[in-house]
Structure formats: C-alpha cells, structure tokens
Amino acid sequence: MEGETEIEVIHSWSAPRSLSTSLMYSFAQRDDMEVLDEPLYANFLRVTGLDRPYREELLSKLDSDGNKVVKEVIYGPGEKRYRYCKHIAKQRVPGLTTDLMKKGKHFILIRNPLHILPSFDKVVPPSFLELGLSGLVSVYTELCHMGQPPPIIDAEDLQKDAEVVLRGLCESLGIPFQKSMLKWESGPKPIDGIWAPWWYGSVHKSTCFTTTRLYPSPLPPQLYELLEQSLPFYNLLRRYAKRTLPFDKSSLPIPDLPVPANEKLLIWVGDELLPRDWAKVSVFDSVVQGGDAVWEGLRVYDGKIFKLNDHLDRLFDSAKALAFSNVPNRQEIKEAIFKTLISNGMFDNAHIRLTLTRGKKVTSGMSPAFNLYGCTLIVLAEWKPPVYDNSHGITLVTATTRRNSPNNLDSKIHHNNLINNILAKVEGNLAKADDAIMLDHDGFVSETNATNIFLVKRGRVLTPHADFCLPGITRTTVMDLVVKENFVLEERRISLSEFHTADEVWTTGTMGELTPVVMIDGRVTGNGEVGPVTRRLQKAYKELTSESGEPIPHNW
C-alpha cells in the first residue's frame, strides 16, 4: 500500500499496573512512532480461557490468532519509522512464533509488587500468574540466551526523573530522545485497548510521570504470602536494572573490588549457600540488633585450613562465654566451611571470615530470651592475599581510643562488637597510617586495632600480656616459633616508648600473617627496614603454614 514502509518494532514487556500505559502514552507523543496496546491480549484470552468483563467484546473485535497478529499486525508494514508494542509478560503464551522475540528491540519495565498489590484487585483477584513477574524473568532470560540482554527500567525511577530514564532508555534502544515524551493530554486515547475503562482510570487523569502519593497504601495481610512469592523475581530484575541503566543520580558509583574474582562468591548463611548479593541475615538477627555474635578468621594454604581446630576451640569458648544456646557442633561447622570452599573452588590463598550469631529474634529487643531460632552460621570465604605489605613493612600511629578493659568487655571473647577497634582504625586512617596502636587503661601497649604486636630489643623478643587484647592464634603460633628459633621470649607490660625505641617491630594476625613495622608515630623503627629476626620468623611461619593444617576433603 502506498506510504507504507518496513517498520522497526520496539517491544515493551511489563506486568499489570506498572506504569506501562503511561509509558505507552509517552512513546505515542513521538512524531516517528505508532503504538499498539497489548496486541496479543485476544490470543491470551483464547488460549488460557480466562474470564474478563470485556472478554466477549475483545474476542469479537481483535484477532485471536497470535501468530497471525505477530506477522501482520506487530511486524506488518507501517507509515512511521517505529512501532511501539506494549506487552504484558503473561500474554506470551506457548505456541507463539519465535519471531516475536527474535525480531525488533525489547526492553522490560518493572515495578515493586509492594506498590502494585494494594490496588490490584479492582479488576481481577491478584495471583502469582496475574502479577506476571515470573514471565518477565522468562522474557529476560530468553533474550539473554539469544545474546540480546534487554535494558530494564523501574517504574519508581520513571516517577523520580522521567527525562533521565527516558533518555537512557532511548539511547539503549538506539533511537533519539524527544522532549515530547515527557507530557501527554489527559483523558482516554484512540490507542487505548477495549479494556481501558476497567484499567486506565488513574492514568487517564495524568499528563506526565509523577509520584501519585508520598507514602504507599497499606498491604492487605492476605496478600503477604503473594508478596513473598513475587518479591524475589522483582529484586532479581532490579539488580540488572541497576547494572544496565543506573538512573538514580543520588546513588554512589559501583566501586571496584580489591580482588575482582570476589564478585562471584558463594557464601554460607544459616544452612545454605547463596550468591554474594543474596547473602544476607534477617534484620531480626542479633548481629544486626546488637552486634551479638562471635567470629574467627582463618586462612587456606595449599588445600589445607591452617589451625582450624584452634580457631573452632576459641569460637566455642567465645559462644559459651556469651551464653549462646543451640550452637552447631564442630562437625556441622566444618562441613559448612568445606562446602563453601569447595563450591567456590578455593584451595589456596583464601581467607575465611567465620561468624556465629546468637541467631534471629522473634521480636526486636536486647534479651536473649527472644532468640528462639538457634544460632546463625556465616561462612564468608574470599580470595585474599595478606592485607599488609609484608615485604617492606607498614606504619603505625598511637590512637587515643583505649582498648577495652576486662572490667567492661573481656577481649578474650572474640566478639563482633568492634566499635572500640573501629574508632582506633578511624584515627589511623585520618593519620594516613596502616593501623593504630591501642593502649590499655594504664597507658601500656595492648595491641593494634586489628593485630597483636611484638618488638625486638637487643635480640630479645617481647610482646604484651593478653590482659587487654585478644590472645590471637597467630600470636600464639609466632610465640612458639620464637622459642623454636632459639630467641628469648618475654611476655610483659610494655610501654609505648619501648616500641618507639625498638630494634624491630612486627604485628601478627590471620589476615596479615607476620607484618614488619617500619615506623611508629613518626619514629623510624630500627634502620627503617625489615629486620633479621622478623625475616627469620616470617620464613619459619611460611614453612609451618605449608606443612600443616586440616585438608579440605574432595570427591575427585
């Protein structure tokens, strides 16, 4: 027919009540666009047999042969350059030609089901099928499989800043943005489907994308289970929306990870392994409510976990000191650790942050009497080389924040209440030092904010008593090595000036191993280089980690 040309089709996939009609009106304002409102709706009703108030009228006026609609209506010739097809995901029923997905350009519009459910039942009873979020995930998966991952936009972002979102969407679709997309006339439109009187009452009152209300409507209790079913599908798509179209101007840029391989981790939480972004604890968990948890740091060397049982002994002692109940046994914790490491393929150069919380509470509050679900176990394994410069050394400053006294909170309990240490670390960061020394209440050196500390003076090795510090596993290991290497070891109170005038200083900890210190409070340690005693003990420690540890089991 004269004037008709081959047209480029843009497919919008959404769920009901997701601003899809507003977005259709937006695209209809363009001078290069024609619009189709749910062209596959009649086919959907024919195939599913579902009832609607307008079913008979719809089936009598629109073609219900889906493949014919795809060929002649959706991809038929047109008079403008582009054709916008608004689709509801659930209308993509079996039997439709693959051309529907293979041809044209596609994008997905999502909306939080929490904002949809309260008003959904005005036309049809809400159900998982009617919400259609699983269908959107299916659309996304199929397009990705074809090598065409679609852009995803969120209705909330549209309401916050329509121009930014639409500009980004147009750029992703390879079409120019037109300012006319930001406004439309109120009232019914010639492009509306037959169902408009039942569904489009609110949008007919609109003239642009606006937030209709500041606060959401209450969620009817009977819809809570449906929300639980639907929200994971929305959250999954929302993650991809943030990656592909980061519209939120207020959001921080996605930071680079220190070790990029840690982007794809499996983390043990409770009784299961979860991907990194899904690994979360309940807001009712004691570790969130009050930092009420204990933890250990472990390292993996050449297929073995170093000092595993020593760390588990301390974990159980800490849990007992805090009167935890329903604590998992040693074998259960080991199995969780092994499963986490094996699933991540981690057999060397890995660090494990092992956390045991008092568990989830039945209601918020301080009392452990509310903890009726048992403890929560977290196994976070990361690819992580030693975190300090063990070849050239680090610098320390002395913090004004004092280390906890046993009168307040005994540091022999390896607990998660680390504000004391964090405040000291803040001081270290502000001073541009690697870490900060913490003194006890009498002014003697206790440890650093993260490690135990040693010094060498005239061939003698000294370390502070563990009265105000954690008696670290690495600390104990190095003390044994000091004796084995025939050095004199002395454990006593040590003043800060003794560290300022030491020949050598090093720190110890699982995360950093044995780390030389070359400057404290602006004073050069020794000659400013890693000393011979430090080097010798580093070598002995490396040999010990290579030859000992609990092997990670495997089935191959």
Automatic annotation (TrEMBL):
GO molecular function: transaminase activity
Lineage of the organism: Eukaryota, Viridiplantae, Streptophyta, Embryophyta, Tracheophyta
Claim: Magnesium is one of the keywords in the record: no
The protein, known as: Branched-chain-amino-acid aminotransferase-like protein 2
Organism: Acorus gramineus (Dwarf sweet flag)
Keywords attached to this entry: Aminotransferase, Transferase
Gene3D superfamilies linked to this entry: 3.30.470.10, D-amino Acid Aminotransferase, subunit A, domain 2 (3.20.10.10), P-loop containing nucleotide triphosphate hydrolases (3.40.50.300)
Pfam families membership: Aminotran_4, Sulfotransfer_5
CDD domains cross-referenced by the UniProt entry: D-AAT_like
Single Gene Ontology BP annotation: carboxylic acid biosynthetic process
Presence of keyword Secreted: no
Segment forming the signal sequence: none
InterPro entries cross-referenced by the UniProt entry: Aminotrans_IV, Aminotransferase-like, BCAT-like_C, BCAT-like_N, Class-IV_PLP-Dep_Aminotrnsfr, P-loop_NTPase
Similarity remark: Belongs to the class-IV pyridoxal-phosphate-dependent aminotransferase family.
